[in-house]
Specification:
single chain, alpha/beta, TIM Barrel, eight-stranded parallel sheet, 8 helices, 35% helix, 19% strand, binds D-xylitol-5-phosphate, binds zinc ion
Length: 229
C-alpha cells in the first residue's frame, strides 16, 4: 500500500466522546484519511483509555478511514487479534512491551494488518535495527505515553532524522510517525526532518474548529515536504 505523505492522523483520545461520531465526521469531511486510536491499559502506561469495542465503533463511523491503532499495553499479543477484528488497518506495538518483537510483528502481519513498532522517548532507535526490514511504520513517541496534551520533547527530533537516514542507507520503505505534542509550531520541522505521519490530538480536537485546525496543520506539514525537495 502506498500513501500520499505527509499524513495527518488525528488522535481520538482528545475527542469529545459524547459526540465521537460527529467529531470523526468532521475529520473525514476535512480530508482526513488516517485516524489514530490510543489503547492504554493502566499498566504499561498510567492511564486507561478504550478497547476493541470503541475501535469497532470508529470503524462503523468511518468505514473508509485507515485505522492506526497504537497499543500501549502489556502483553499485546493477547489482544492483537481483537483489534484486527475490530477493523484496525495498522497495529503498532511498543518495543518496550515485546520480548519477542519479531514474533509479535509476524502475528500482526498474519492477521492482514500493517505493522508498526514504537519507541518511548528514552528508548534508542538503535534497538530497532534488526526489525526495521519487517515493519511498515516506526512510531517515535515525542512525549511519555499515557496522556494527551503534553509538551513535545525536543530530544526526540534526532531520532526522526536518524530513522530517515537509516531508511535511505538500508533502502527500506517504512513510514516514520511522530506522536505527542505535535502542533502548528513544530509540524513543518517534523516533516522536514523526515516524518511522514504526524499524530495530533489536542491541536485538533481542543481547538474551536476541527476543520480549520486540520487545514492549518496540513498546510504547515505540506510546507515541510516541499522544503525537502
Ligand atoms: C499519548 C498518545 C498520543 C496522544 C497525543 O500517549 O499516544 O496519541 O493522544 O495527544 P497530543 O497531540 O495532545 O499530544
Ligand atoms: Zn498514540
Amino acid at each position: 500500500m502506498t500513501f500520499n505523505t505527509p499524513i495527518l492522523a488525528p488522535s481520538l483520545l482528545a475527542a469529545d466522546f459524547t459526540k465521537l461520531g460527529s467529531e470523526i465526521s468532521a475529520c473525514v469531511d476535512s480530508g482526513i484519511q488516517w485516524l489514530h486510536c490510543d489503547i492504554m491499559d493502566g499498566h504499561f502506561v498510567p492511564n486507561i483509555s478504550y478497547g476493541p469495542f470503541i475501535v469497532d465503533a470508529v470503524r462503523d463511523a468511518a468505514p473508509d478511514a485507515f485505522l492506526d491503532v497504537h497499543l500501549m499495553i502489556e502483553d499485546p499479543d493477547t489482544y492483537i487479534e481483537s483489534f484486527a477484528n475490530a477493523g484496525a488497518n495498522l497495529i503498532s506495538v511498543h518495543q518496550e512491551t515485546c520480548p519477542h518483537l519479531h514474533r509479535t510483528i509476524q502475528h500482526i502481519r498474519d492477521l492482514d494488518c500493517m505493522t508498526g513498532v514504537v519507541v518511548n522517548p528514552a528508548t534508542s532507535v538503535d534497538l530497532l535495527y534488526p526489525i526495521l526490514p519487517d515493519v511498515d511504520l516506526v512510531l517515535v513517541m515525542s512525549v511519555n505515553p499515557g496522556f494527551g496534551g503534553q509538551s513535545f520533547i525536543k530530544s526526540t527530533l534526532q531520532k526522526i532524522y536518524k530513522l530517515n537516514a537509516i531508511r535511505e542507507q538500508m533502502n527500506l520503505t517504512y513510514l516514520i510517525e511522530v506522536d505527542g505534542g505535535v502542533n502548528e509550531e513544530n509540524s513543518t520541522t517534523l516533516v522536514q526532518k523526515g516524518a511522514d505521519v504526524l499524530v495530533a490530538g489536542s491541536s485538533i480536537f481542543k481547538k474551536s474548529s476541527i476543520p480549520s485546525a486540520i487545514q492549518n496543520l496540513t498546510a504547515r506539514m505540506n510546507a515541510g515536504r516541499s522544503d525537502l525537495v
